[in-house]
Structure formats: C-alpha cells, structure tokens
Amino acid sequence: MNVVSKTSSSRPSDSPTSLSGLQIKKLSVSFQVNKTLVKALDNVSFGVSPGEIVGLVGESGSGKTLTALSIMRLLPPPPTCLTEGFVFFDKKNILNASQKELKALRGIRIAMIPQDPSSALNPVFTVGSQIAEMFRIHMGKNRKQAAHCAIDILKSTGVEDPHKTFLQFPHELSVGQKQRALTAMAIACRPEVLLADEPTSSLDVTVQARILHLIAKLKEQLGFCALFITHDLSLVDPLCSRLVVLYGGQVVEEAPTKEILLKPAHYYTKGLLTCIPGELSFHKTKSLKTIPGKQPTPDHRPMGCIFSPRCPNVRSHCHKERPVLQSISSTRRVRCHFPIV
Ligand SMILES: Nc1ncnc2c1ncn2[C@@H]1O[C@H](COP(=O)(O)OP(=O)(O)OP(=O)(O)O)[C@@H](O)[C@H]1O
Ligand code: SF4
Ligand SMILES: [Mg+2]
Predict the structure, then answer these.
(1) Which atom of ligand 1 has the smallest separation from the CA of 68?
(2) How far is the C-alpha of 250 from the C-alpha of 58, rounded, in Å?
(3) Stated pTM of the model
(4) Which of ligand 2's atoms lies nearest the C-alpha of 315?
C-alpha cells in the first residue's frame, strides 16, 4: 500500500528539498538531584540532514531518550530540569519556541514514536479513533475519510487485522501491536522529522524487519529525515547512513554507518560491536562478549575520560584529562585521547 498517495499533504511543498533537517548544538540537560544540578546530557552536537536517517546508539542510560524528548520539548521545565543549547529546525531554535509554535510542530512537522508503547496511547479511546483524529485535525479529512486513512496506515505497519485493531481499546492490544499503532500515528501527518525511539524493541524479528522497511520506504517517499534510536547495533545497517554513539550523556563517536561497523575508532563502539551475537556480528567472535562494568550514572561520572573504568586501552593520561570530541577525518569525530586508527 502506498501510504503517501492516500493522504493529502500538510506541507508547503512536496519537494524533499523544501525540508529542513535538524541541527542539535551543545545540547545539555541537567536534573535537580538532592538540590544539586546533575548533567545527564553533556554538550551533545550532531545534525540530521534532509532525507537522512541517523542512528543514535548507546547502552541503557546513555541519554538517547533525553535527546529525543529535548527535541520535542517534552522535558519538565526548570527548576526540575534545565535544558540548554540549540535545536535548530527550519532556521529556528526549538528550545526557544513558544507554546503556540510548539503546537504547530509537535506531531505534525516533527513526530515521535515513543519508547514506551504501554503508556503512550489514551486508554479511554479506541486505537482507531486516536489515529483518525490525526487525519481529521491536521489533514482536513472528514470522519469517514479519516477512518479509511487510519485503517490504511495501520495496515502499512503490519497490523494483521487493521479493521479489528481500529475498533479495539489500547488494553486489548499486545505491546507489539501498540508499537505499530504508535508508528501509524507518528507518520499520519507525514512529518518532516521522525524521532523513532526504539520503535521495534517489542516486536518479533519479522515485524521488526517490516517496521524498519516501512521507515526506509517512507523516507524515500516523503523525504523526511529521521533519528533512529536503538541500543541494538545489528539494526542500523542499511537503514541509517550515519551513526552517533552516546555514552554517559556524551557523543563519543560519529561517522558513516559502514565506517563505524567495519572500523570503530572508539573503544566503547568497538565493545558494543563485539556484543552483537553470531550471524549478525560484524566482528565475528566465537563467544558472546559483554563490556565489563556499568555505564556511570550522571551523578557518578569519573574524572577524565568517563569510559576509562571500562576501557581495555586505558592509560594514565585518560584519568587526568577529559577527551574532547575531535575530527579524525572529514567524516569522523571521536572522543578519545588514543583512538583506534
Ligand atoms: N527525570 C529524571 N531525573 C533524573 N535523572 C534522569 C531523569 N530522566 C532521565 N534521567 C537520567 O538520564 C540518563 C539518560 O536517560 P535516558 O532515558 O535518556 O537513557 P536511554 O539512553 O534512553 O536509555 P534506555 O536505552 O534505557 O532507554 C539516565 O542516567 C537517567 O537516569
Ligand atoms: S580516552 Fe583513554 S580511557 Fe577513554 S576511550 Fe580513549 S583510550 Fe579509553
Ligand atoms: Mg530510552
């Protein structure tokens, strides 16, 4: 099914070149913990060009969801949480946008597939009515047309019986079905930017492949750009053209996907790759490996390089000085005093 041909455009122009992309610059997020501000995201900078899918990867707690929620301006206001930096979209800094401007952006020009499908749907309305509402309110469809579009878009996400799902309440769906319903809602208005936060984490491998294929297909049809958030590096190729690796709230490596998968420059990225099991592994190992130790919480980051307690190549200098993110080629940035070259 061609989702695009069945929906009208809410954009000024259908040309992918009219789309704007995202630029995240020096994004920091701090939380009040025991009356002190603790930095959970630290000076995160990267861009997502029009038509590009960038993978944001890292272990649990690295700051992936915080990055997406900051872009959507869904984090609590100060003093609970302090968000600093810039998120440029369509030449404006979203972090300074008024509530009126945000209303015109969220779910329409920038949409998010949330990480937790269980709490994201409204329990008192049917799934179909929640998806159809997107078409009625934002795409100018009447009730009948909106219902038709909602069923179509549900079908495109791999829901087995879209007519039945349309009439069901969220508690009647499995987690995987909810995740697909939320994907349908996110793409309903043909967003220019899609933030997909672990969109396949509750799905079996067949449906997972279908959702990844759908995102890639929609990117081709609509020319949107996307941030594909995952802890699973086996999912990023060929979907993502570039990867941004987060560790402890900092970008530690950024490069084209193929370069990272074949030759990581940061020891953390290398560790993540060797954790991919068996057939999917890019660095074939006989046994399943893990990265020893744990990612530090924002209030317990070590001095110097924050990966130093877990790094197989740690040297005394690493404990003394925090590495900066530096370019090691025209396409790669890495935060390490002694990158793998
Ligand atoms: N409201 C909050 N108050 C204090 N700390 C928070 C809050 N929300 C998030 N954090 C901290 O920020 C860090 C990053 O959290 P985030 O949810 O972005 O991680 P993630 O990379 O999305 O992890 P996962 O893969 O588990 O979803 C974590 O250490 C988390 O404890
Ligand atoms: S700076 Fe040192 S501890 Fe940190 S990743 Fe590089 S080699 Fe390892
Ligand atoms: Mg998350």
Answers:
(1) 18
(2) 10
(3) 0.92
(4) 2
Is 40 a pocket residue for ligand 1 (Cβ < 6 Å)? yes
Cβ neighbours of residue 66 closer than 8 Å, sequence gap 6 or more: 29, 40, 41, 75, 249
Dist. CA 61 → ligand 1 center (Å): 5
Task: Find the 321 Cα to ligand 1 centroid distance in Å.
Answer: 25
Residue whose Cα lies nearest atom 27 of ligand 1: it is 60
Dist. CA 58 → ligand 1 center (Å): 12
What are the domain boundaries of the chain?
19-119+190-334
Which tokens in the block code for residue 100?
A: 């009126």
Flag the least confident range among 62-66, 194-198, 209-213.
209-213
Burial class of residue 224, CB neighbours in 10 A (0-12, 13-18, 19+)? buried
- List, for residues 304-316, the tens digit of each pLDDT value: 999 999 999 999 9
d(CA 213, CA 113) in angstroms, rounded, equals 15
CA 244 to chain centre: 10
Q: Whose CA is nearest to atom 7 of ligand 1?
A: 31
Residues 136, 143 contacting (CB under 8 angstroms): yes
Hey, whose CA ends up nearest to atom 5 of ligand 2? 336
Mean per-residue pLDDT of the chain: 89
Q: Which ligand 2 atom minimizes the distance to the CA of 305? A: 4
**Architecture in CATH of 19-119+190-334:** 3-Layer(aba) Sandwich (3.40)
* Per-residue H/E/C for 190-204: CCCEEEEECCCCCCC
